[in-house]
Design brief:
Largest sheet: 5 strands, antiparallel
Radius of gyration: 19 Å
Strand order of the largest sheet: 2-1-7-6-5
Order of helices and strands: HHEEEHHHHHHHEHHHEEEH
Helix content: 40-55%
Number of helices: 13
Number of strands: 7
Length: 325
């Protein structure tokens, strides 16, 4: 096992390694941008950024880290946390399961026995989760959701209306899931309102630095390490990270857990967040996706970071703890 002094990583060496990773994978052209939502097909495929935020509030970044993009399915992580606060763990489990599916994220499938969506990280489960957000009307629910994202990012966020409208017009598959769940009583009669809120959460605009800070907030027991604001009740961090670890990377989740070994979530706009509890959060953005909907460059970057610094949760050396020193 390496000696403690060998595990110590300075800020300059971390920044240098991020620069090396960015240079190494900048030329990688595998994958394609998402095109089933028309607005997403317009994104520049060359965009690429990597950011790390530690629980002490240090931020390291390289590439196009100020470029805005829609958060898409990464939003599911944080809305799940809000639903846990609103409804509690036991009630939420009656509506949404926590089992990995092995199916694509947009599969129209429910548990055959319980009629619940399998987990909150696939579209059906996320729609059911969104339906549980409290509010007297659609405006209050949206404002509560936007304020939740504000706590995680440390600044106000907004919905990209073009992307929201594009998703709303073309989201027939998500609408089919919602009607199936309505049939089984998983969601209530406010189906259109729930779908609008779901499309809006996916169209929230963030940048790569935001992703890293949001991930670091989860790593920091729900406290934003930049602002010091409690973003989610600490009681629910283990619930959030558990479903991220087992379900966050869709039907790549098992291989991700095996090779990289940290809670993570991807989105079809090209973002990935990864959480190293009590240490740091990682954000990567690159819109070129593999067949499963995960960022090609993002997966490569996270794999190298995990190997370089021993971030895998079951790595006995746990070199990643150096970042807490």
């Amino acid at each position: 096992m390496a000696k403690p002094e060998e595990l110590k990583t300075t800020a300059s060496s971390l920044e240098s390694f991020l620069g090396e990773l960015h240079s190494k994978y900048k030329s990688l052209q595998e994958g394609a941008v998402a095109n089933y939502i028309p607005e997403l097909s317009k994104v520049n495929p060359e965009l690429f950024s990597i950011c790390i935020a530690t629980v002490k509030g240090e931020v390291y970044q390289v590439g196009d880290y100020n470029e805005l993009f829609t958060i898409q399915s990464i939003s599911k992580v944080f809305v799940y946390g809000l639903a846990l606060e609103d409804r509690g763990r036991d009630y939420l489990l009656t509506k949404v399961g926590v089992e990995p599916t092995g199916d694509a994220f947009n599969a129209i499938v429910l548990d055959e026995v319980s009629k619940r969506p399998y987990n909150p990280m696939v579209n059906a489960g996320a729609i059911a989760t969104t339906s549980l957000i409290k509010g007297t009307d659609a405006i209050e629910r949206l404002n509560r959701m936007l304020d939740m994202f504000r706590r995680y990012t440390g600044h106000n966020v907004f919905v990209d209306i073009s992307v929201f409208t594009s998703e709303r017009v073309t989201g027939h598959r998500n609408r089919a899931m919602a009607y199936l769940m309505l049939n089984f009583g998983t969601i209530d009669q406010n189906l259109d309102e729930t779908l609008d809120l779901y499309f809006q959460q996916c169209a929230v605009m963030v940048d790569c630095r935001d992703l890293a800070v949001m991930a670091a907030t989860l790593a920091n027991k729900g406290i934003n390490p930049i602002t010091g604001e409690q973003s989610v009740d600490n009681r629910y961090i283990k619930d959030i990270l558990s479903v991220m670890y087992t379900c966050g990377m869709y039907n790549f989740a098992g291989e991700w857990a095996y090779k990289i070994g940290i809670p993570a979530k991807s989105g079809i706009s090209g973002g990935i967040i990864a959480v190293i509890p009590n240490v740091m959060g990682i954000g990567v953005f690159s819109p070129l996706l593999d067949s499963r909907g995960n960022s090609v460059r993002g997966v490569k970057v996270c794999e190298e970071l995990s190997q370089k610094f021993g971030l895998h949760l079951f790595d006995c050396s746990r070199q990643g703890l150096q970042f807490c020193d």
